[in-house]
Amino acid sequence: MLEVHSVSKYFGGLGALKEVDLRVNEGEFVGLIGPNGSGKTTLFNVLTGVLKPTSGKITFMGHDIIGLIPDKICHLGIARTFQIPRPFKTMSVVENVMLGVMFGGRYSTRSGEDARQEALRCLDNIGMKVTEATMPGELGVAGLRRLELGRALATRPKLLLLDEVISGLNAEEISEATSVLKRIKDEMGITIIWVEHIMGPLMNLVERVIVLDYGEVIAEGTTSEVSRDERVIEAYLGAE
């Protein structure tokens, strides 16, 4: 589904990504981990057209997506969440999700009422109980992160990029959120790449892990393989 070949991104002399190679197959649930500043969010920004890589090639479903702007990439079937939720604050929660329905992948010609009903179904699917008058400002951290997820899912993506969707949540909220992610993968059949610093839930859900450090892929494999890798241990804990 996704092939990243020798992708680099430099900001002046700083290499945020350096010759990154990775592949994601349709239907996979992949974890993308690494210390702060390792390049995870930069990679998401490159995949979604927010940033253009300095060099390299990216193909999604056979399409070369280098140079495409974010809305075109979204229309191909890639959606994302952000570390810091970015709702349209003057619009209701339902209206925020309606935007994803109307301007995402395959619903640009739908009527406003059709979009509203689809948005309500989407919110219900992720267990978000709100009224049509609920505003983003009324939501707590967990609600805002759930709204980010709902807006992304409303575009009907084939590939979903999740950027720290359980950060700042308590244990109960994390359990609820991970149940939703499992349902998205198992019942909706959406391929997922999940960036997260809270390792326990991620390691329990994903099928494969890719590890970045200083912009380079230093390890890849199953959760047990990666957790025993000396380079990964050194990246997180340091060497003696």
What's the end-to-end separation, in Å? 40 Å
The biggest beta sheet is recorded as: 6 strands, mixed
Supply Rg.
18 Å
The neighbouring-strand order within the major sheet is: 6-7-8-3-9-10
Kindly report the average pLDDT value: 93
| Contiguous uncertain segments of 5+ residues | none
User: How many domains in all?
Assistant: 1
The beta-strand count equals 10
Principal-axis shape: globular
Report the portion of residues in β strands.
Answer: 15-25%
Give the CATH topology: Rossmann fold
What is the C-level CATH assignment? Alpha Beta
Order of helices and strands: EEEHEEHEHHHEHEHEEHH
* Category from helices, strands and their pairing: alpha/beta
Helical fraction:
25-40%
Give a concise summary.
The protein has 240 residues and is of the alpha/beta class.
Explain what this protein looks like in three dimensions.
By secondary structure, the protein is of the alpha/beta class. The protein has one domain (2-191, 201-219, 230-237): Rossmann fold, CATH 3.40.50. The chain has helices at residues 40-47, 70-76, 93-103, 112-125, 141-154, 171-188, 199-205, 223-227, 230-237; strands at residues 2-11, 14-24, 29-33, 55-60, 63-64, 78-80, 159-163, 191-195, 208-213, 216-221. The radius of gyration is 18 Å and the shape is globular. The termini are far apart.
